[in-house]
UniProtKB/TrEMBL annotation:
PANTHER family per UniProt: RENIN RECEPTOR (PTHR13351:SF1)
Entry's Gene Ontology BP terms: positive regulation of Wnt signaling pathway
Transmembrane intervals: 285-311
Protein name per its UniProtKB record: Renin receptor
Job description of the protein: Multifunctional protein which functions as a renin, prorenin cellular receptor and is involved in the assembly of the lysosomal proton-transporting V-type ATPase (V-ATPase) and the acidification of the endo-lysosomal system. May mediate renin-dependent cellular responses by activating ERK1 and ERK2. By increasing the catalytic efficiency of renin in AGT/angiotensinogen conversion to angiotensin I, may also play a role in the renin-angiotensin system (RAS).
Complex and partners: Interacts with renin. Accessory component of the multisubunit proton-transporting vacuolar (V)-ATPase protein pump. Interacts (via N-terminus) with ATP6AP1 (via N-terminus). Interacts with ATP6V0D1; ATP6V0D1 is a V-ATPase complex subunit and the interaction promotes V-ATPase complex assembly. Interacts with TMEM9; TMEM9 is a V-ATPase assembly regulator and the interaction induces the interaction with ATP6V0D1. Interacts with VMA21 (via N-terminus); VMA21 is a V-ATPase accessory component.
Species for this entry: Oryzias sinensis (Chinese medaka)
Stretches assigned to the Renin receptor-like C-terminal transmembrane spanning segment domain: 257-332
InterPro entries attached to this UniProt entry: Renin_r_C, Renin_rcpt, RENR_N
Record-annotated Renin receptor N-terminal domain positions: 2-249
Main location: membrane
Protein origin, superkingdom: Eukaryota
Amino acid sequence: VLTVLQAPEFLSFQKGDWPLSAEKIPDLVALTMGFSVEEDLSWPGLQAGPLFQRPRANVLVVVRGVDSLDLPQSVASYPLENPVAFTLDSVAEMVHSTFAEYTPVVLQLAPSEERLYMLGKANAVFEDLPVTLQQIRARLSQDGSVLTSFPLNSLSRNAEADLLFLSEVQVLHDITALLQRHRHLAKDNSPDLYSLELSGLEELSRVYGKDSPQYRDATSILASVLQKFGEDMYRLYGNSAAVEVVTVKTFEAPLTRKSRSILESKQISNPGSPYNLAYKYNFEYAVIFNIVLWMMIVLVLAVIVIAYNLWNMDPGYDSIIYRMTNQKIRMD
């Protein structure tokens, strides 16, 4: 299920039961941020909005291990079809290439061998975010931990599956806490992108089962945490942020990703290439190529015509300078 938690007034999400394919979610995020896509998104859930009004941030949270969450305070909800794995790497590249001089915040979180990792270019303030389970275990014992904000009930801080779920909740809390301390990040001229994938519920269902009290308690906690997370992000960006939640029991094609640090490489233009190579093709290449090509052809033809006319010009008849000179000579 795709649930739109928060959206600015100028983003028109229509309420209905129109299904959306999971592979089209990156296109949906790109359109909400004002970017163009390769293929038109023929989906009636999102209507065209003002051309010069775009959200300051887009936050997409993917929750694995559950079909839907109880999120009553949402803008709209749509069924999800063809639940294949997807990433927002293409949208992140658009943000980087378009707003490179402003250093936008592009923060991606996904499970890996270390359970959590950060990917993409982000501001240095996010270096404080915990990445590995060891770091998060230490973070949960510090001041400001989420363990004191809600009752754990059947969850245990010592079990690994429970710790994974609590660590993801802690990361959501730390993201909003960092933005509250560094509000200038939400007020710059570049849009920010957050892509957060949570697999704690999936691990709890695998370990305890979906009928277990641990899974039920975690589902209730995550629903309330996501509701508050969406409200906080929406408020921090001045009511100009789109927050979506995608809930899926399991992806049909698991996506494997190589883990790396949040700020490991700040200048890589192609995250899929270890040699820092540029992308071989961009969908805007054809447009730019045609503009340059035909402009060069027009300029070359103009130079040829001008040169031909100058070469065949009769100074006595075609030039006003020689014409005036001939008249003066005749008068003398």
